[in-house]
Design brief:
Elements lengths: L21 H26 L6 H31 L4 H30 L2 H8 L8 H8 L8 H11 L3 H14 L1 E6 L2 E6 H6 L6 H17 L1 H21 L10 H6 L4 H28 L16 H6 L5 H15 L1 H12 L3 E2 L11 E4 L6 E4 L6 H19 L12 H4 L1 H17 L3 H36 L6 H16 L10 H4 L13 H20 L3 H10 L6 H9 L6 H24 L3
Parallel strand pairs: 3-5
Antiparallel strand pairs: 1-2, 4-5
Helix pairs in contact: 1-2, 1-3, 2-3, 2-4, 7-10, 12-19, 12-22, 12-25, 14-15, 14-18, 16-18, 18-22, 19-20, 19-22, 19-25, 22-25, 23-24
The protein binds zinc ion.
Length: 607
Amino acid sequence: MQAGVQGPQWDLTSEYNNTDDPKIDADRQAIDAHLAKIEGLNSSLTGAAGEALIEPAQQVFKLNEEVSRLVGNLSTYASCRLSVNSRDEAAQKLQGGLKNVIKRAGEAAEPLSQFTLLADDELIEKFLADPVIAPARFITLHRRARRHELLSLKEESLVHSLASDGIHAWGDLYDQLSGTLRCDVLLGNETVEMGIAEAAGLLQKPEVETRKAAWQAINESFSEHEEACAAAINAIAGWRLEMGKKRSTTRPVHYLDAPVHANRFSREVLDALMACAQEARPLAQAAAGLQARAYGETCIGPWDVRAPAPGLADAAARSIPFTEACDVIRDAYGRVDGSMADFVQMMIDNRWVEGTVADNKRPGAYCTTFSRSRNPRVYMTYTGGASDVITLAHELGHAYHSWVMRDLPDSQRSYGMSLAETASTFGETVVRNALLERAESPAEKLGIVWEEMSALVAFVLNIPTRFEFETRLYDQRAQRPLRPAELCELMESAWSKWYGDVLDRPDPMFWASKLHFYISGLSFYNFPYLFGYLFSLGVYSHREQMGDQFFPHYVDLLRDTGRMSASDLAARHLKGDLCDASFWRASIDQVRPRVKAFEQLLDELSM
Ligand SMILES: [Zn+2]
């Protein structure tokens, strides 16, 4: 890599000077003291009844917030240090020491959590009357929306204690299995043995033979363990269905209730969302077809879902030094509003971005925020590709989201997964358009538009494929466990339904190779991605419609993400109805001309 391309080292000293900073010890001691107080108060919280509960509950709430703030600050610090140097022993010790603290804090918070769920409405109103607690109204009432599912205290604690060797053990088994599985990838004339993660990395290589060989090897390996995977997926789904039945005493509980609630929207919104995906399917299939054409093919294989732009784009791309990337992002953000440009400049001036290239650095990119100062940090390895510029824009979008919420109470600063990508995708879109404008050749443009097309295909075809499979799995599992062959069949038909003729062949073992189906704490880890994608495009489309009025609404929308349902947010700030197909259609209409432009680009490049 050329000198001067990589990004700067970040500065964490606004939080702690080093791992031996006395502030760390002071924070740990403060946590211990707060926890001891909470544990003392808990006896009155479990022993008392009626109005006598309110005061201890309020005190515990305030202490809890303080504990979370301090624990959050320390663990963010430790993980930031470990990202840059995974062998940082002092940071490892700090993080290790926090594990017990986190467990203790979790247990100490349980009685309050029971109170906020079980107390009657009148008591809750009195609890929320305290001005410090009042901002927690939305999250408190939101959690209470599923109160009707609660079992008796005894039953809940029995379920909780059995879960670790029940549903979670199946998730752990899968993690163990997929983490230790080896596979044989045929590379050229040589068979190379490697772990699944390494083979999955090959799915992003530009050579189709490599991708195909990696895909085949991964599938063979999972096929050998199909019985174990089937046992796990059947048990996980079975556990949830059985729990749903047991929780259906006052009204029926559906397997989609929990994931929809966690994302803070409704079944009607989910239906409108999936209907939109259905409508957009031909467009996404066309995009996939064009991607195949760029590779000289007529259809794509399941090994192509993460394929990069063909080599041509790579060769044309010149590397963009970090400072130049910052200029591009600052200018593009500034076109939305001057204060957004100032924000980017502040992140750079404060050295709140880590972008160096170094050994021992963990891969990936993320944004995090210190819970005490509320100062964000962006982490990545910046090497100068256009995709790095877009990644930086994406993470700065997250940082901006956090920044505009920095003065809000803690209880209003966390938001569901479906809204988490709003500001990041928005920032990404703004900067991608800026990069396209400055691209000097069609080949250079190809790399940028390619990613946009891949996103369309991933969100509108791949995500619904997973959703389709998972719903049908639950429906059928309600009768009996499914055999591996039946799971393959379900998976194949889901692929065929969504991809249609543009797919060379389905990916029958995807039910086993996709980790998301085995997350024991969370079901349907798929539709929130589609929601996030279309919602952020919807926000972007309002930028054009609303002109000068857009920016204040945008900031207010971001600020409300932690204290409103997604539907209320859209109604208030975008005058949109998430249950109405036309809201989602506007998002797809944004992408339609891009697919056309992609086709023209291929024409220009004679691909
Ligand atoms: Zn993100």
